Amino acid sequence: MELFNLPWFLMNVDTFLLRLAGESACLMTVHASRGSVPREKGAWMAVFAEGAVGTIGGGHLEFAAMAQARERLAGRGGEALVRYPLGPSLGQCCGGELQLRFEVVTAADSAALRQRLAAHHPPLALFGGGHVGQALVQVLSRLPLKLSWIDSRDGIFPSDLPAGIDCQHSDPVQAEVAALAPGSSVLIMSFSHAEDLEVVAACLARQRLQADLPYVGLIGSKSKWATFQNRLAARGFTAQELAHVTCPIGIAGIHGKEPEVIAVAVAAQILQSISASG
Known about the structure:
Layout: H1 13-20, E1 25-34, E2 44-47, E3 52-54, H2 59-73, E4 81-85, E5 97-105, H3 110-117, E6 123-127, H4 131-140, E7 146-151, E8 166-169, E9 185-188, H5 193-210, E10 215-218, H6 222-234, H7 239-242, E11 245-246, H8 259-277
C-alpha cells in the first residue's frame, strides 16, 4: 500500500518537485498509445523509493511499471522506452497498448521538469476568497490545472495553501483580468455583487478583443444574472456576448448549497468545459 503515502490521483507538479528536492525519483510518462488505454499521452507518475505521485492508470500496468521504475532507481538500468500490450501481457481488459518512457530524475532537473509537466495544464483564474472559493481551491488544487486565486482584500488567503497556487492581491480586482494567461477559464465569486459585475465586464471586454477566455462562470442565481444582463447591456454588451457567461455555475442535478458541494459541482463543469474545448 506504499503507493498511498501520497494520494495516487494527485497530479500536482509542485508536490512532486517538493519531494524531489530531497530524493531521486523515476519519472514514468505515457509516450505513445494505441487503442483503449487507461491514460492519455503525457500522463505521468513519479516513483520514489517509497511512495509515488501521480498515476498512469492503476491496475497491473501500474504495478509492473512501478517495479521497473524501482529497478532503475536502484541503478540497474533498463530501456528508456518500454511497450506494454495491456491485454496479452498484463491481463487488463483495455486491450490497447502504450509506451512508457522511464527516466531517473533529481533535484537538478526540477526547473526543466516544472516547465515540461505543467505545459499541458490549462490555466484557471478564481476571483474570490470566500467560503465557496476556499472550498473550490481544495478541489481544484488536486486537478491538472494551473490555478490563480485573486481577491481585492488583504489577508484573505489562508497560510496553509496547497502547493502550486498563484495568489494575487488586486485592487481593483478586475484589473487582474488583463494579465490572465491566454486560454484561462474564469470563475467569479467575489465578496460583493459590485465586484462581480466589474470582473464580468472586464472578461467580456477582453473576450471581445481577444476571444481567449473559453469559460466565464459567475456564481449566483438566475435573478442575479438577469440583473447583471440588464446592467451589462446598458454598457453596450450584446446578447451574443452575454451568452458567453455561465450563470448559475455547476453541473445540473446537484442541489446542495454547502460550499463543498458547490465546489464539486463547479469543478466538474470546469472539466467538462476544458474537455469540450480541447
